[in-house]
Design goal:
The protein is mainly beta. It has a single domain, classed as Phosphatidylethanolamine-binding Protein. Helix content is 11%, strand content 36%. The chain starts with a helix and ends with a strand.
């Protein structure tokens, strides 16, 4: 599976533009509507509400979960934050500290955007107040600033035609 993930992330130009290297595993991203993200499949905006994200985590480690719109033409970097939770312990049963609450996809009329979900391993538990979401947000710079290693990822597209 890791070759398929790697190929998808390279084909979409997520590596090296958004992250330094592809994650090694697929992040399970399901929605209460029954839809499931899978390496670029299309999910209509109304169906991409209320995500449920799962992974096999180490109970002694902390994780950061992110979702970014990688096609936001209104920002210089071309990405915007749709969700960010830090200090998630282990497998996610401890919900961590919300840095940016979930925003369902809302691509502008007549467009299609890709939404990238990444799970990073944190080197330690952080004080949530240290996280700064720059106006010109870049998930790559953010990961480098906080020494985050991408472990799992997934993405889907959402269109508004």
């Amino acid at each position: 599976m890791s070759d398929k993930i790697s190929d998808a992330f390279l084909t979409e130009d997520f590596v090296p533009r958004l992250i330094s290297h592809p994650p090694s595993s697929l992040l399970d991203v399901d929605f209460l509507t029954g839809d499931k993200a899978y390496l670029g499949n299309n999910i209509v905006p109304d169906s991409a509400k209320d995500p449920i994200v799962k992974w096999d985590g180490d109970p002694n480690k902390y994780y950061l979960l992110s979702m970014v719109d990688v096609d936001d033409s209104l920002t210089p970097e071309g990405e915007s934050v749709n969700w960010l939770i830090a200090n998630i312990k282990g497998d996610g049963s401890d919900h961590g500290d919300t840095i940016a609450g979930y925003q369902a996809p809302s691509p502008p009329k007549g467009s299609k955007h890709r939404y990238l979900e990444l799970l990073f391993e944190q080197p330690q538990k952080y004080d949530p107040d240290i996280f700064v979401l720059a106006e010109n947000f870049s998930i790559r710079n953010f990961a480098e600033d906080y020494q985050l290693n991408p472990l799992a990822g997934n993405y889907f597209a959402s269109s508004n035609y």
